[in-house]
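CORE FACILITY INTAKE
Project code: CF-77B
Contact: R.S. (postdoc)
Sample description: multi-component assembly, two entities in total
Requested service: structural model of the whole complex
Turnaround: standard
Below are the sequence entries exactly as provided by the requester. Do not edit them.
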Amino acid sequence: MDILRFATAGSVDDGKSTLIGRLLFDSKAIFEDQLEAVERTSRDRGTEYTDLSLLTDGLRAEREQGITIDVAYRYFATPKRKFIIADTPGHIQYTRNMVTGASTADLAIILIDARKGVLEQSRRHAFLTTLLRVPHLVLAVNKMDLVDYSEERFEEIREEFTSFASKLNASDLTFIPISALHGDNVVSRSENMPWYQGTSLLHHLENVHIASDRNLVDVRFPVQYVIRPHKTEFHDYRGYAGQVAGGVLKPGDEVMHLPSGMATRIAAIDTFDGPVDEAFPPMAVTLRFEDDIDISRGDMICRPNNQPLATQEIDAMICWMADSVKLRPRAKLTIKHTTRTARALVKDLHYRLDVNTLHRDETAAELSLNEIGRVSLRITQPLFVDDYARNRLTGGFILIDEASNGTVGAGMIL
Amino acid sequence: MLQRDYTTSQLDVLEAEAIHIMREVAAEFERPCLLFSGGKDSIVMLRIAEKAFWPAPIPFPLMHVDTGHNFSEVIDFRDRRVAELGARLVVASVQDSIDAGRVVEETGRRASRNRLQTTTLLDAIEEHEFDAVFGGARRDEEKARAKERVFSFRDDFGQWDPKNQRPELWNLYNAKIRKGEHIRVFPLSNWTELDIWDYIRREGIEIPTIYFAHTRKVFERDGMLLPESDVLERGDDEPLFEAMVRYRTVGDITCTGAVHSTAATVSEIIEEIAVTRITERGATRADDRASEAAMEDRKKEGYF
């Protein structure tokens, strides 16, 4: 059994919470005590049916205001897969949460209300999903029951969205007509839509192929921690621990250390459970090398003929996540990229992107909360980077405000 | 030639993620510690710490916040495990906090030291100048926990502000704090109760005996089975009876209920959980029943 991480985007009005409640309920991830609490609350509020959306409201302020404030993580499993849902709010002011949820997602579900069609917010969600390079996208056209399960309406929405998505170079795109409230095409195929030939949403989630989404080509091993036991038994032991960010490593492989540029071979790949004969993402292992090289946290192990770019100049798309400060040219920030932390100077803001129209405003002087723009940074020391499109782990970084210590920006290297 | 399929099992993915988080903390903080209660989640967390730094010893101490109202089987287990690892254990005692006048003992039938633990925990963090504290909490446990970060920032009062959390992207964690502040770190955030048990089975990890079915004198209160104990006041309307029970969670004896069970092995426990229809906290924790937002309120104050 493997894990599929998916993000859901849409507002309460689109029926997102109802859909998640339905998935949890029908896969039996909801327990009696949780269901009783929801039934009680539904009755108290005079709702006719059990309001499954109540299952996903976490914080008191959210229940009071009927909104979702933050990314919430939910879990369910079927015999085929374990699922982690990053449930992100859909309102415009929560772009930062959607970006956060999408950063680790294998798949994103965008909900569209069949009555309303493709809205500005649907376009924004699709854009953010492709910006964050979520490999698989599902357009769930919800509330089909309210348009009489009309095939024409579904096709209309499919066409409109497809023409928009072609501008985004969206990845694998799947359309599914559903009714989250009544369960049509959520877990099993609906009898109300015989014209629909595809699979149910859950079937798609269970079967979409994700193993090849990881980068298994470019060897990238950011050194995280140096292990030196200081025990008589392991007197001369020196291991370099980290999580594989790309490629497949094997004992005997020739590798290169950055920043030194020195080549060596992998002597062993160690784990607590014994040595292994290969390591690939997302394994966390400890490497030993044949030669004694000075290696520390923040360094990178790669292949001599396949190296990341070592650079102090970075061009990136930035999503700004702070309301207390703005991103402006000349600002100094802390940057955390793989296991390396350095300082960054904002050299230039090239443009601000309107996430609804994709219009580039080249006169923009700053980025505020939830705004996205293209930025050039100068870094105090070389970072070992790949294009974000090639590798999310060596192409993504966060920016930290040096006064508040808050995480204020997320960057994707171009 | 067949293309090798690099699929990774869910337990391997969760374990790798937790190891990465632990190493990140060891690299970025000066004085981390790991909360170890002898409960199943902290036992799994401790095994992952062992794996993350092997063959080196775990590079931080363990801490137990001791209410004094313990199951003796759990304390025996705790001490044996600490000795095996050669680890350093800090015991922060709620009784000491009461004696020092930092907190006042609750009285009456429903008295519990559960809430008092927060003060003891925060005092110990301050005294030992811990800047990162590992906890075994999981997001599937409770609504408020579902929204908490892996690196959860706490101000100098130890408080959690759910509306002002640091965004967490990819596998990048922001470890920046000022003196006096700290980070609660939850490496098992993405695990479910079933994942914990699957892992215990796969790894052959020892757990305290009270997790398995045994005969115990219990009484019923609010639909929960509480054990006969010197520290639990029992009314005349709460008669003792013998039952075959086990514990799904292990906490303070005064607010942790047992469930009827005949599960004698980890595999039988897993079968039982797979068909059970009540959450572990709903079934066994009086502390969460106080109100719909009970956990949220305690977490804001600095609870685990």
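Facility notes:
- Chain A has a mean pLDDT of 90.
- Chain A touches chain B through 74 residues (CB under 8 Å).
Invoice: internal transfer
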